[in-house]
């Protein structure tokens, strides 16, 4: 399973590196979201600073949707999805590999968004251990849930519009938990943030287990 996961993750990441879609489209879109928020709230810098954690994770979720859609769009070209089904790879390995590839892209995006927040919102980062833990666990949850719902919507004609409708309500706990954890870290009160890390970890584990068990049947139906 893990060998197959590494093969699929490597394939997806090589395709993204060669196409530069994430670099040329997803990252600029994420930065534009931050800039729009900055213009909207700039008259009151206090509001902008207090809203930084929420704005950051909203930008991550919106931009992450583009990366998730791209992850399954590349399988829809030239019958690649049929080739994936017939490849003999472990479905659980395919799920983990695609989730790992999406997770790596999200981590790079989150680092760049963090730099953008520091420059545009003049945010002073504190509580680095809590910040890093939040990013890692939230990314795992987004990647796992997004990959599971991505294959669910992959076989439908309206997958581009259906995936956000399915996924955004599901990711509400991630948005709430990661925002609260970031608020605690930036307020230099990490003790208030660690319980939210527990919530995010439970979410990530549940969707990872669901993906490992259910990805095969969903892939066949798509």
How do the strands and helices of this protein lay out in sequence?
Layout: H1 2-19, H2 21-41, H3 45-73, H4 80-86, H5 91-120, H6 128-154, H7 159-170, H8 172-186, H9 194-221
Helix pairs in contact: 1-5, 2-3, 2-5, 3-5, 3-6, 3-8, 5-6, 5-9, 6-7, 6-8, 6-9, 8-9
Short structural summary:
By secondary structure, the protein is mainly α. The protein has helices at 2-19, 21-41, 45-73, 80-86, 91-120, 128-154, 159-170, 172-186, 194-221.
Characterize the structure shown.
There is one protein chain. The protein has one domain. It has 9 helices and no strands. The protein has helices at residues 2-19, 21-41, 45-73, 80-86, 91-120, 128-154, 159-170, 172-186, 194-221. It is globular. The two termini are 21 Å apart.
Quick tags:
222 residues; mainly alpha; globular
